[in-house]
Design a protein that fits this description.
- It is built from 14 helices and 18 strands.
- The chain is of the alpha/beta class.
- The chain has a seven-stranded mixed beta sheet with strand order 4-14-13-12-9-5-8, with helices on both faces. A four-stranded mixed beta sheet has the order 1-2-3-17. Strands 15-16-18 form a three-stranded antiparallel beta sheet, with helices on one face.
- A hairpin with a 2-residue loop joins strand 15 (about 355-360) and strand 16 (about 360-365).
- Helix 2 runs antiparallel to helix 10 and helix 11 (about 325-350) runs parallel beside helix 14 (about 415-430).
- It starts with a helix and ends with a helix.
- Bound molecules: ligand KE4.
- The site of ligand KE4 has 19 residues, from helix 4.
């Protein structure tokens, strides 16, 4: 049971902040119960206001790939803060960060730094529309790209028909320019392009969808998507806010490039890890696309804190740590060991569980097989997930409080942490 301090704080928070949280998923509504108010974090651990320690598999929803309080990152942030929190003017460090990201993501010639994944995805969308002169965008059910109006849309009644808002406040007129298709459905993709290909400005996709917990775009699907975008002059936008510098140093696009000769997205969106826990995100593309952005071109995009000097120091220090030789090999091995342990524990308990991982990102479903789309994700056993979530929380293991969210391992997670987590899982699977 949550401590009285967490409950009292939640009551206080709900008096002054809608739902008591500054981002809805934190309210535990998907899993029920009272959210834990975190007081501090260190390494692989979160500590709530009661001092209860949790092994952290959320990592701030992805950014904390090094764990909390990495010395080199802290040192860089403090030093940068001492030199000034914000200037609203260009700095050398923004150039350094841009150069280092571009070295790791060869599909981009240039990028623009912004303050959140939502801002980056929204700007990438406007850039795609401005660069192509087209209005229609395509997204996939289950993928989340932040809360820009055009992306809060669900599938229309028929194939490739107009989308409908998933949120109040999004006008139908906006949603009608968004087509929502089923993830991994090649036939639906073919039909949509056959019907409206010449109107499609871009297709935005999470290449490994962490907003469906963990669902991979199949190679045949991704290959066909790339071909269709090329054939119809539409831009392929990779939303790597979650997968970027998390599933591999070169992001998910580097994995597909290794499997599909010549593969590359046209525009890429990054966030989370590149900020190292500070508000920083980015979008980038080839020069012929980025030239459309103000002040060069007619696509306007701006931000007071874009490329903030403290955030860029945090991001740069993080990037320099994860570039170290062997970093991703070790992180992947650690994550795979956890996932293998989860599968074994579930098999021993006779509980159907399907799990997958890539780099430092993992997901699991109480289902016989890994889901390939949103419908299959939602068909998994949510009641068991919620019981499991709370049983793990009670045993000091903090998973994502929703069965459609991914989980993350950091470089700070030790073998002892993994063994403790699996011991908790063996008990939690019997709840
Ligand atoms: P932010 O605006 O939250 O920085 O990024 C939006 C975003 C864009 N694209 C992808 C693939 C994302 O996963 C996100 C944000 N992810 C959620 C968790 N699924 C952030 C947590 C939250 O909303 O509180």
């Amino acid at each position: 049971m949550p401590s009285s301090r967490n409950a009292a704080l939640f009551d206080r928070a709900q008096a002054v902040i809608p739902g008591g949280v500054n981002s809805p998923v934190r309210a535990f509504r998907a899993v029920g119960g009272t959210p834990r108010f975190i007081h501090r974090a260190q390494g692989a651990y979160l500590f709530d206001v009661e001092g209860t320690r949790f092994i952290d598999y959320i990592g701030s929803w992805g950014p904390m790939i090094l764990g909390h309080g990495h010395p080199a990152v802290l040192e860089a942030v403090v030093a940068a803060a001492r030199d000034g929190l914000s200037f609203g003017a260009p700095t050398e460090r923004e150039v350094e960060l841009a150069e280092e990201i571009l070295q790791l993501v060869p599909s981009m010639d240039q990028l623009r730094l912004v303050s959140s994944g939502t801002e980056a995805a929204m700007s990438a969308l406007r850039l795609a529309r401005g660069a192509t002169g087209r209005k229609l965008i395509v997204k996939f059910e289950g993928c989340y790209h932040g809360h820009a109006d055009a992306l809060l849309v669900k599938a229309g009644s028929g194939l490739a028909t107009f989308g409908h808002p998933t949120s109040a406040g999004v006008p139908e007129e906006v949603a009608r320019h968004t087509v929502v298709l089923e993830y991994n459905n090649v036939e639906a993709l073919e039909a949509a392009f056959a019907l409206r290909g010449e109107q499609i400005a871009c297709v935005m996709i999470e290449p490994i969808c962490g907003n469906m917990n963990f669902v991979r775009a199949s190679v045949p699907f991704m290959k066909r998507l790339r071909e269709l975008c090329t054939e119809h002059g539409s831009l392929l936008v990779f939303d790597e806010v979650m997968t970027g510098f998390r599933v591999a140093l070169g992001g998910a696009q580097s994995l597909y490039a290794a499997l599909i000769p010549g593969f590359a997205p046209d525009i890429s969106v990054f966030g989370k890890v590149i900020g190292g826990g500070m508000p920083l995100a980015a979008f980038g593309a080839r020069r012929d696309v980025m030239r459309h952005l103000a002040p060069l071109g007619a696509v306007y995009q701006a931000g007071t804190l874009s490329g903030n000097p403290v955030a860029t120091a945090c991001g740069l220090a993080t990037l320099r740590e994860i570039r170290r030789p062997g970093f991703f090999e070790e992180l992947s091995a650690c994550t795979q060991a956890l996932v293998t342990g989860l599968r074994t524990a579930a098999a021993e308990a006779g509980v159907p569980l399907a799990a997958d991982s890539e780099g430092g990102m993992f997901g699991f479903f109480f289902a016989e097989a890994l889901p390939q789309n949103y419908g299959q994700v939602m068909a998994s056993d949510s009641a068991r997930f919620n019981r499991f979530f709370h049983a793990m929380l009670a045993r000091g293991v903090y998973l994502a409080p929703a069965m459609y969210e991914a989980c993350f391992v950091s470089a700070a997670h030790s073998d002892q942490d993994l063994q403790a987590s699996l011991e908790a899982a063996r008990a939690a699977l019997r709840c």
